[in-house]
Amino acid sequence: MIRTGIGYDVHPFKEGRKLILGGVHIPYYKGLEGHSDADALIHAICDAVLGAMGLNDIGHLFPSTDPRWKDCPSKVFLEYVRDLALSKGCRVLNVDATVIAEEPKIAPHIARMKEVVASALGIKPQEVNIKATTNEGLGFVGRGEGIACLAVATVDVAF
Asked: May I ask the CATH class of domain 2-156?
């Protein structure tokens, strides 16, 4: 059976942190605040895959109250979600994601993000689509206070 899940994540900017999106370091004067590396793109993709399988979000798997996940690379979460899917006989078919940010420019980093996400999920880069847009100056994203990400995943579910 083919199922689809959606994921959403948002993190505020914080000075003194690296900006990591899609497992890629993006040079910028501030990063995203969070317990892990705060990779909002990978968090949204994890939730999309988990949603397609009818499971809880990554907050249940990797709670911010657990010190094991402090500053953890979010790619670890995505690899865990992949392994969880495989253990249930499921296979990720594709991911489509959007990064919503006024700045920095995301487009120069998209090809590498696709490679990292595809590798973590065990799929081909052409099965991962990542786009970027702005919020046209509206809301917290428009004011440059943070980044939001949306993701949809299609999964072949064995149950």
From this structure: alpha beta
